[in-house]
């Protein structure tokens, strides 16, 4: 069983920075893809960034050059980070940590990020 615990959301003014963290526990962590999704009110959940176990990253076009995903792995645990810089009001959303391994798909509880103009 995999558990994901997120932290680091909050309120920030436009142009500011935030760092999200997601602590994952479970035996598959080191072999899984970890990522961040977000969902704004009235919109569908969308991929923000993902980092595969082999180190391949992917980013939404809207965050390229501003957000950076990284991760630390240890035995049966791992932490994914999302460094968010030059934040914009349109980045306001609930951010969810995600872990994918083969057919398994796990979600964190979500953390609110609010960017004021």
Description:
The chain has 117 residues and is mainly β. It has no helices and eleven strands. It has strands at residues 3-7, 10-13, 18-25, 33-39, 46-51, 57-59, 67-74, 77-84, 93-101, 104-107, 111-116. The strands form two sheets. Strands 2, 4, 5, 6, 9, 10 and 11 form a seven-stranded mixed sheet that branches. A four-stranded antiparallel sheet has the order 1-3-8-7, with no helix packed on it. The radius of gyration is 13 Å and the shape is globular.
Please work out how many helical segments DSSP would assign: 0
Largest sheet: 7 strands, mixed
Structural class: mainly beta
How far apart, in Å, are the first and last alpha carbons? Answer: 41 Å
Helix/strand order: EEEEEEEEEEE
Integer average pLDDT: 95
**Oligomer, anyone?**
single chain
List the uncertain runs: none
Q: In one word, what is the shape?
A: globular
Strand coverage percent: over 45%
Computed CA radius of gyration, to the nearest angstrom: 13 Å
Strands, count: 11
The percent of residues in helical segments reads under 10%
Helix/strand layout:
Layout: E1 3-7, E2 10-13, E3 18-25, E4 33-39, E5 46-51, E6 57-59, E7 67-74, E8 77-84, E9 93-101, E10 104-107, E11 111-116
Parallel strand pairs: 2-11
Antiparallel strand pairs: 1-3, 3-8, 4-5, 4-9, 5-6, 7-8, 9-10, 9-11
Concise overview:
By secondary structure, this protein is an all-beta fold.
Descriptive tags:
mainly beta
